[in-house]
Amino acid sequence: MSLYHxxxxxxxxxxxxxxTISVLARYAPRTRERIKAGLAARLGGTDxxxxxxxxxxxxxxxxxxxxxxxxxxxxxxxxxxxxxxSAQPAPVTQASEQVIRFVAKR
Length: 106
Fold this sequence. Notes:
Blueprint: H1 3-27, H2 29-42, H3 51-59, H4 79-82
Helix pairs in contact: 2-3
Keywords: Membrane, Transmembrane, Transmembrane helix
Organism: Cupriavidus basilensis
Pfam families: DUF6587
């Protein structure tokens, strides 16, 4: 086995793993945050020292706020309702809706 094949054998799975983690992080943000919180707890949380404390602080879940935070509460699902600065949700207007038409190709 040559050096090229050894590097390729290690590099390709690492690239696939990185892409898989990226896709899961984007489409499953709650699961990502649960996993990060679990890893932070296993490192010792705030009681850890040195590099483990820095890693636990980096992995600790951050407070999510605003639109597209991945933490939809199931309320009225408007951007104004999930931000702290607005008192009332933004009204939904006809201009904000977009019509999608499906056309069968023959």
